Structure formats: C-alpha cells, structure tokens
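Let's sit down with a protein and look at its sequence and fold side by side. Which protein we use is up to you, so please pick one and set it down. Label the sequence line and the structure token line clearly, so we can match residues to local backbone shapes. Go ahead whenever you are ready, and we will take it from there:

***
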Amino acid sequence: MTFVFLLGAASAATQIEGGNISHTWSGWYQKGCIRDGSSPARACDHFRRWREDIDLMAEVGIKVYRLGIEWARLEPARGNYDEAAAASYRELFTYMKSRGIAPLLTIHHFTNPLWFEDIGGFATPANIPVFLGFVEYVVKRFGDLVDEYVTINEPNVFAVMGYFAGEFPPGRRSMRLALRVQSVMASCHIQAYSLIHKLRREMGCQNTKVGFAHHARVFEPKSKNNLWHRLCARLTSRMFQDALTRACLLGRFSFPLKKYGRLRGKLRCKLHPGEYADFLGLNYYTRSTVSKLGDGVREGSPRNDLGWEIYPEGIAICARELHDILARPIYITENGTCDNNDAFRCRFICEHLKVLAESGLPVERYYHWCFTDNFEWCEGESARFGLVHIDYASQKRTLKKSGRFYAAMIKNKGVTDEIYNEFVAPQEYHL
C-alpha cells in the first residue's frame, strides 16, 4: 500500500503546553471537572520542551505539523499582548522550519481566556470583533513564518460539549445557546478567512491557505427499517454537522443556524455566500449509531479505550460528503484513537490510511492525533492518544511501537508486507 499524501501530526496548545494560564480549562480544573483530577498546568510541559518534541518529530520523519497557540498566553488581558510569549512562538516556528517541518497553525482550539469568557465568549455575537482582533494580531505577528491556518477547531464539538451537554466549560445545558455558539463561530470563521487573506496580501505573502477543522462522523440509524431511527439520524446529523458544514464552507446559513455579521456601531456587515476554505479540514474518529436524537454505539462493534466505535470506512464517507459540497484538497486534520497500552493503534492507523488511499479523493495530508500523549480535556491524563508515551511525573518521552510504525510508513511512503507483518498483523481490536 503506497501513500501519495503526507503523514504528519496534530496537537492543541492547552493539551500539551502546560503552565498556569488563566483560561477556561484551568478554571474547569479548579471546579473539579477533570475526571482523573489532573491539571492542564502540567500537561506535557511543551512550552518549555518544544525543541525536544520537534527534534523527536523530525526523527520520526514528519514534515507537516498542525499545532495551536494559546490565546490566553498571548493576550492575558483584553488588548494587552505578551510579546515575550509571542517571541517564544516565533522561535518555535523558526526552529520547525529549520528542521523541515511546515506548520499548520490553529488559532482557536476549545480554549478561551477567562476575560473573554467573562464577557460572554462565543455565546455573544457582539464578541465577534474581539476574536477577529486576536486573529489580526496572530497574522501580523507570525504571518511571515506561517502560511497555513485553521481558524477554529470543531465549532460543533465546542458548542455541544460546552453549551448543551455541559461537559466542557462553561458547563451550560441549553440547545438554544449551543446553536447560537455554532452560528457565531461559523460567522467568525468566514470573517477570519477573509481577514487572514487580506492581511497576508498586505504583507506581500503568497501561498496562503485557510480552512477550519470540522469534526464529522457517520450518523447511521440503528435499524434502517425503522422510520424513527432514520429520521433521528438525519436530524442529529443536521443539527450537529450538516448545517455547520455549509455555513462555514459556503457562507450559507440555514436551519438551525443564524448568520451574524461583524458589528460596527448599530450596523451589521452582511456575510455573503461564497467559498471560505482553501482546504477541507476533517477531524474523524467514529460512527454514531442512532435510535433517538443524540449519540450511540453499534452493538458488537470494535471499540477504543473510551468506548468509541472503530469504523475506518467512515473517514472516506465523511471526506466525500465535504468534497461534494466544496471541491478542495482534503487535509485529515485529526484522526487517532485512545489506546492506553498501544495495543491496536498500528492497526487503527493502517486501516484508516488504507481507506483514504483507495478512496480516489484528493487527500493531501493526514495529521495523526496526537504526536505525544496529552491532557485529553475532561479525561485529563487518563486517555492516551499519542505516538509518543509521556511519563507525566518525569516528562520523559518514549517513542511507542505505533510511533516506530509511523516512522517506517513515512520512510517507505506506505506499508510494505514486512512493515504490516511486524506492526499491524499481531494487533486486534477490543470487542
């Protein structure tokens, strides 16, 4: 099996950087909402150890890396930017490029500064200019080093988990608020897309690429012969991802979302239909089996250590649905699995890559989630997704078997029989 796309890795600032930062996840930890009691202040200490991590990444052979920046670290108070933190990020980007690793920079990944949350966060449409102000700072400060941007990571997951399920900060439980947050974030993406291109043109920069990272999954009825199951599957898919897809990619807002333009005085700037992605960013993990409105797991299916179904075929289904809406190159911006003992990760990666390789779709990048184990949001340090094992107490990094498998695939531009027999064949999924 040969790959024509690049194999990279992905991460999020809050999940790896560490540090006592005044953001929503430090606040969530202080409220006792992390299941294993761990704090994002430790994580992987990446903000101090990034050179070690980039060197290890280069050793594996990775050439593309999706990473984030911590908004609360860069703008600890509204309008006050920490230039020392910005200088550290610039040093990181410069070092990455010296090691032949191209950055794909995520501007927002699940975490708000507490000051932004205090003024209503993304639940308040009037805050759209506040976010765009941060986007402008980021591009002006790093635009000479970074060509490619993800504006927002998984607006649907951020909205559902934080404003409907109540499991992410701020812990609200309101369908109305969750839909408003999706709408506001979609509006933020569209305006950030245009702003980034404008600023980069003014800087004389070329090859700008902007998109958003969309969490999509396959929603299937538990029984295809059951009309209620089919209806719930379609409605859940629309509420969770379908309407958001068209809003973010095409600027076309429809039920249940609402369009919010940037506020200027008492006027709203209109958001026009158009094309607002230079690549299709897809985060894919699982399939949902639906018998009522909401999520579900198919009986007897293989599952990871968090109980998510392992369904490799779904990655091509979701990628094709995006491509049918807007024909753009496809970046798998996240794909990985919770496998605490590294017992089936090689098989998981291999089977998903095989589906992509055989799909006929214009897949250009695959960013594995994650390069190292990390602070996995509400699960804390208990859920391991990395190619590299982190001993959190000592911060020692150790390349896992799956990391060696990944390195072998990159070196050979695919999976040879020898690689398959060594890494994949011995592994089996949980049932």
